[in-house]
Amino acid sequence: xxxxxxxxxxxxxxxxxxxxxxxxxxxxxxxxxxxxxxxxxxxxxxxxxxxxxxxxxxxxxxxxxxxxxxxxxxxxxxxxxxxxxxxxxxxxxxxxxxxxxxxxxxxxxxxxxxxxxxxxxxxxxxxxxxxxxxxxxxxxxxxxxxxxxxxxxxxxxxxxxxxxxxxxxxxxxxxxxxxxxxxxxxxx
Amino acid sequence: xxxxxxxxxxxxxxxxxxxxxxxxxxxxxxxxxxxxxxxxxxxxxxxxxxxxxxxxxxxxxxxxxxxxxxxxxxxxxxxxxxxxxxxxxxxxxxxxxxxxxxxxxxxxxxxxxxxxxxxxxxxxxxxxxxxxxxxxxxxxxxxxxxxxxxxxxxxxxxxxxxxxxxxxxxxxxxxxxxxxxxxxxxxxxxxxxxxxxxxxxxxxxxxxxxxxxxxxxxxxxxxxxxxxxxxxxxxxxxxxxxxxxxxxxxxxxxxxxxxxxxxxxxxxxxxxxxxxxxxxxxxxxxxxxxxxxxxxxxxxxxxxxxxxxxxxxxxxxxxxxxxxxxxxxxxxxxxxxxxxxxxxxxxxxxxxxxxxxxxxxxxxxxxxxxxxxxxxxxxxxxxxxxxxxxxxxxxxxxxxxxxxxxxxxxxxxxxxxxxxxxxxxxxxxxxxxxxxxxxxxxxxxxxxxxxxxxxxxxxxxxxxxxxxxxxxxxxxxxxxxxxxxxxxxxxxxxxxxxxxxxxxxxxxxxxxxxxxxxxxxxxxxxxxxxxxxxxxxxxxxxxxxxxxxxxxxxxxxxxxxxxxxxxxxxxxxxxxxxxxxxxxxxxxxxxxxxxxxxxxxxxxxxxxxxxxxxxxxxxxxxxxxxxxxxxxxxxxxxxxxxxxxxxxxxxxxxxxxxxxxxxxxx
Lengths: 188, 666
Hints:
The complex is a heterodimer. Chain A is of the alpha/beta class. Chain A folds into two domains: about 35 residues; about 130 residues, Glutaredoxin (3-Layer(aba) Sandwich), CATH 3.40.30. Helix content of chain A is about 40%, strand content about 15%. In chain A, the strands form two sheets. A five-stranded mixed β-sheet of chain A has the order 5-4-3-6-7. A two-stranded antiparallel ribbon of chain A has the order 1-2. Chain B has four domains: about 160 residues, Up-down Bundle (Four Helix Bundle (Hemerythrin (Met), subunit A)), CATH 1.20.120; about 230 residues, no CATH class; about 120 residues, no CATH class; about 100 residues, Tick-borne Encephalitis virus Glycoprotein, domain 1 (Sandwich), CATH 2.60.98. In chain B, the strands form two sheets. In chain B, strands 2, 3, 4, 5, 6 and 7 form a six-stranded antiparallel β-sheet that branches. A four-stranded antiparallel β-sheet of chain B has the order 1-10-9-8, covered by helices on one side. In chain B, β2 and β3 form a beta hairpin. At the A-B interface, α1, α2 and α4 of A face α11, α12, α13 and β1 of B.
């Protein structure tokens, strides 16, 4: 085995150069990676139709959430979970959007270990969602490229994803970023 | 004022590092002893200056000097003193300062304790170390100055992330950094050897203690980190294959390989190029670990400083340090080979197998960690690679490694025969079969192939004991003679035995936690009970408790086994008003055979509180095993051979640089 390392000069030279080449390739990838904002939606999902998915309802609700439900009007798709602390932060604001009837908000109840955890959480904190799909094993979340909760997608009338927001929706985020996009999509 | 002193000391350290990086290198090339002697002196001065600088930052934290931006952002006057101190490195700028402090301390330690090092090698290694230091001083001074002032100062600070306000995490970064940065010494020695064009048994002996020390610290750091994740994150898990965890595992795997290949260089004068390569790669992975956390290249819960501008600077540093050393390796490496030949079945062969498996495992973990980034760079969208990938790739690589670990130490150098060795492992084989059968009887066959984990642990443990028993001829000679032989064994041999046994213990713990876990989640009203793993747990109710800088809701639960009360446990949910954050404090009842782990969640409108019950068998063995491994490393570190440096074999590669002949052997 050791002899293999000391094989003919030209070939072993090549082996010694290989690490540099690999490393430079890696460095180039890092360079590209650095230019990207981790909070931006990857370009491949923007302006694409929502992935085909059909989620069952959560306990105590009649309707689940499917790709077809996202056509017809501009809507938000909000990924949440009872285990997610940041979801609690945005929740009161979602409730306000709901009571002011601003825009339909659909929910993807993501990665609940317990079937009842999501419904109980909504019972306690209020339910701002028009439709909710139960996604305990991340089927839809993976198709949507969800990296964490909360995440919110803006979907237009044709059922195309137009924007993704990572993190809680605060009043500032809403008025500064999301509301103008929703308004623009409505005029399209 | 102290803060400006700290800033100034850091700038001074940079100038000293530049001096230390140039003059000794020239001196070593020309055989100028006086120029070479600059290196150790400068290294000591550098260590003192950075220590002063770091001390100034800690002082600013202790007195809560909120006119310092860093303190105002990360501390609060109501914080307990220990977390004020730990707050100094609980943020990006401070942690980078800690990083360079440790770098400088290692350099200073080589200068002070490296008296037996050849002058040229020492001068060159310290010069390389100084270049790394200079790069990171510049990084701190230009992009991450912890001494920036804030005017006017706020009335109070913004506090520290309460998740990080914990004794385990206060100590986790320093140990992790001692490990990461410790590998810089092996790197500097490797680059110095490449410049010198010579690697021999003596080199391996000088490098080994520094590598071993770094390995011990990194093992402690990783163990503390996973322990913290276990009891603080409240999910009952201890390893999540999170990118930042992987970043610490990568240098550990490569460093473990390096420790073993350095033995081959020392004893058999073989695998030299490979060992140099491993030394470079281990530190490269350590830098990558720093880089992954600091740059935001990979998003993760841990990433507390995501900032692309700093990322570009670090990337440039990485390209210079890693790229430069790899170019040097490509140029000088081929001339290093030669030395002892050996058969595939031999001690060298076993160590090479160990190296191949460890580096393949490291490559797999690296790939899994970077794959989301690579895919995105190729326009493939964002994905996350989770535990299923790592378990599917990592465990099948570790299993043969563990099998071979029991065999390798029994093989002779140069040439061995499995037929002669395997029969000696009958005890280990019986132990493995018995452990698997016992696990099957206790846990049932639902766990499937996971049961083999217990077999592997028993195999390794018994195999390791077999090796040491053979060495001291236990039962073959009178016990008195055996004991005398045991006392006479080199500490490095004992170190290996203890460390390998520690891994066996840890494997048993990991297996138990992975396949024997019970998890029950229920919403309970006061007085209601939940049953799990033969225990009955009654929820007695909630109460409010006030802590130092938090308010807590404490649940009270009575645990009974067959009607007999065994414990009252009080998990908490803490609310930190200053930061506006909530943490869960699990209540853990730890016994040698496993943990009972209770967490309370939110209280529902109907007055029922979510209670999560985890029964984690053998979990404490994971950290016990890690501790035993650390003890093994420390015993090996105390080996006389490493401290005194026995006469080295003459190098088989002709020295190409004149100074190599001036090497003093001691």
